[in-house]
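lol so apparently i was supposed to do this last week
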Amino acid sequence: MKFSYGTAGFRTEASLLDAAIIGSTAAAALRSLELRGKTVGVIITASHNPVSDNGVKVIDADGGMLSMDWEEKCTKLANVTSKSELELLIKEYLVPSTFQPTVVIGMDTRPSSPRLSELSKVILDELSTAYKDYGFVTTPQLHWIVKLINQNSSYSIPSNPPPLVLYYDSLCNAYANIFSSFTVLHRPTLTVDCANGVGSLPLKELSKRLKDYINIRLINNDPCTSKYLNNGCGADHVKTTQSPPVNLVDKMVPNQLYASVDGDADRIIFYFTEKEKKFHLLDGDRISILLVSFLKILVQKSRLPLSIGVIQTAYANGSSTAYLKNLGVLTICTKTGVKHLHHEAKNFDIGVYFEANGHGTVLFSQGCLHKLWNPPTEKSDTETSAIVALLQLSQLINQAIGDALSDLLAVLSVLGSLLCDAKGWLSMYDDLPNKLVKVKVADRSVFVTTDAERRLVKPVGLQEKIDDLVSQYENGRSFVRASGTEDAVRVYAEAKTKKAAEELSAKVCGLLQ
Ligand code: 16G
Ligand code: ZN
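anyway here it is w/ 16G bound
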């Protein structure tokens, strides 16, 4: 089988993954060596995939996704056909250095994860690489740890208190401070569907630590009985079926807020029902708008010159983009995949990025943090409290990568501060009706896009036909792109009415036959 390091790293049926684990582990060690011993991460997880799958991703030294050139090297290392070929490649990529390469590893709770983690450690030993195994952690927790370790100038792993304790301290202290200073709502209740994944473990810890501030109720929180992982539950299930997860069907209390995280807790979506049981999804677009609305108020109150931008993908609902325009917030569209959004978000003092599917975070630039820590000496109380709130949010929200847990706390603190409930959040705008369809084609590689995947340059002539169809519908929009994770192309269409969106979708799909 041929591995390709995609947006989600390597992912496949667990028994076929050994070469990818060996290649990724070698890549992590070599990358660490190239960066003079900075710590690099290896996380073993297949996120929302079925329990029989597994996967692996390398976390770069800044705590973000692996750099593009190393993605390529990682792919080559995973696709060698013999041990001698692997050794030759390792020699080619080896940068002579006296530094000690260091790798941290973690895994989700899939039954195949411990064996794959052991395999990774065997390779690290063979490559004389120092490592620390964090066991069961969420993907964003390991990203956070890598960032923390490398911020420390000696690149040593802090042992007292250990990084995971610092993670909980950072999130919980910031939440408690925001709650005490700015929120008026008394102890909100939130039910969280944990997808029976690794996220159950830190969510238990958070609910314990924050019990005075939030009533967090966990469901689908059995990470040990593997048959339940992502099975009828989790963020991906709820988003794609637009319905509650198992154990909530017909049990949702009207107007109460619910959330689902995915199998490795790097994405989250919220939802609620109204009295007549109508199900409403509060997806990544809405998380982004809720957070940026509050951030904009705080920046205005702080009177500091801080730029704010929102990064979306082509899948963001047209109404959310229109809302941001009205709000006067600069909005950028990028290609699908966290690394593209993250990269753009870095261009702002405060960069908010979310994919509609719930992946995302808010980045505060170094320049922004400097301004917040060193504000003008003459300040009003309003300015001071806005600056303090921005600083607390920068501690609360994972700065390495999108994190379901910190996003959960950020949403609750903003809802509390704005005195907004689930219904008020939903009422910020009405989604344009839309449809997303997966179409099987003979060869998806012939679909080449431009303009952040919103237009096709190949097959030649197809985009003009799509444009022609779109022009026939009020508020019409449609695009076609090859999936990066499945052998199919995706067709997205939206229009003013449900009927029109469905009709437009069917006609664009018709062009692909
Ligand atoms: C991956 C990406 C996700 C993106 C999805 C698109 C990361 C961590 N994950 O799961 O952000 O939305 O791919 O899948 O970047 P698609 O290319 O099949 O539509
Ligand atoms: Zn995930």
